[in-house]
Design brief:
It comes from Actinomadura yumaensis. By secondary structure, the chain is mainly alpha-helical. About 65% of the residues lie in helices and about 5% in strands. The relative contact order is 0.07.
């Protein structure tokens, strides 16, 4: 529709009709979204995922822009246009035709016109106004569909390397410090056919890892050329994502960071890389993939090796006068005693010895660590240091 056509249309639609339609938008958007998910299988499967540009945002933007257009209050709808193009690009990137998207448009306009007709009868709108609304609505849907076709054709014209480049640049923008505002991601995300998620999970990969990019979900961002390769998974890391990762990584080794708000993705990647170093050192199990969520205490205790050395030097000073055998026995006994909160019977169960043996050992240990064992704060620090010490003892390279 040309600008002149829009101006002419706004003169033909009375302001009170615009107000009536505006009041219908929230519930109409819900009806359209629900019917699309019921009628179009591809969108039913995408419900609750970030694998497509969000249906809800697209529908709400489209309906609001329609009312603006027929009221003549807005000449441009850049965000709406980009969302429509992104819908088309998303279909192309995932290797599908436009059939599902075109079906969604058809469902949307049918539900919208049905509502307009109901409102027209209820409000006794004239047949002339109803005719103009019908013409405007169906022309508008054609406009949206055309924008999606543009996005689809743009994406189809790009090579796999170009798409990967878009994703890589977008990922680097997401990880930039300080965090980039969400609005600054909208345009590059639209160009990459990617929906900006509220949360993300970072995955750290070993240097030189082999990754089958085609096996990754279309919404996963990858930077495999980085000195420390990594992936960004929108949303949480669930079983479906785990299976995807196993397909994509022949060597299986990877570490999954914590799911965090997108602005904190750099933290998730930092923790994943720390855990990957511990996996490669043999401290953490190579679970392929290894989840940071299951090793938070170890990550915390070993997060600053230099500081840990300083704390250990002060708290475990008596160890310097012991042989390795004595040190291991004291570490094992005292650690179990602290974890059991001083209960000799529970400590004995953990160590598989007699409680009297525990009491005998603790009397000897108390002579060395007496002050620390009597103070609650000191016991907490000692417990933490001993846990870290035991983790380090698994591999001398971490000492």
């Amino acid at each position: 529709m040309t600008l002149a056509g829009r101006d002419h249309l706004s003169e033909q639609i009375p302001p009170q009709v615009i107000a009536i339609l505006s009041a219908e938008l929230p519930s109409l958007a819900e009806d359209i979204i629900g019917e699309i998910r019921r009628s179009v299988p591809e969108y039913a499967r995408a419900a609750g995922t970030a694998k497509r540009p969000a249906i809800r945002v697209s529908v709400e933007q489209a309906m609001a822009a329609f009312v603006d257009q027929i009221s003549g209050t807005s000449d441009t709808h850049e965000r709406r246009d980009e969302l429509c193009r992104a819908l088309g690009r998303s279909e192309a990137y995932e290797g599908r035709s436009l059939d599902a998207l075109q079906a969604a448009y058809r469902v949307g306009v049918q539900i919208a016109w049905r509502r307009v007709a109901q409102v027209g009868r209820r409000r006794r709108l004239s047949s002339a106004v109803m005719t103009r609304l019908a013409d405007a609505l169906f022309a508008y849907i054609d406009e949206l569909a055309s924008l999606s076709v543009q996005g689809y054709l743009e994406a189809r014209s790009q090579s796999a390397d170009e798409i990967a480049g878009h994703h890589r640049r977008l990922l680097r923008l997401v990880l930039r410090r300080p965090g980039v505002p969400g609005t600054a991601l909208e345009r590059p995300a639209a160009e990459a056919g990617w929906t900006v998620p509220d949360e993300a999970t970072m995955i750290a990969l070993p240097v030189g890892t082999r990754c089958d990019r085609a096996a990754l979900d279309a919404d996963v961002l990858a930077d495999l050329g980085d000195a420390e390769p990594h992936l960004l998974v929108p949303g949480a890391f669930d079983e479906a994502r785990r299976e995807m990762l196993l397909r994509a990584l022949p060597e299986r080794r990877s570490v999954v960071g914590l799911t965090v708000p997108l602005a904190e993705a750099n933290d998730s990647l930092r923790w994943a890389r720390q855990a990957l170093a511990l996996v490669e050192a043999g401290v953490l199990e190579d679970a392929g993939p290894t989840l940071c969520e299951r090793h938070l205490l170890a990550l915390w205790l070993l997060s600053d090796g230099a500081l840990l050395d300083q704390v250990a030097r002060r708290r475990l000073a008596p160890f310097t006068r012991m042989s390795r055998t004595q040190r291991l026995r004291v570490t094992e006994t005292l650690g179990a005693w602290l974890e059991a909160q001083g209960n000799a019977v529970e400590t004995a169960r953990r160590l598989r010895v007699h409680p009297q043996t525990v009491r005998y050992r603790m009397r000897q240990i108390s002579e060395t660590f007496d002050e620390q064992l009597n103070d609650p704060d000191s016991r907490f620090v000692l417990d933490a240091v001993l846990r870290a010490h035991r983790l380090r003892e698994r591999r001398p390279s971490l000492r």
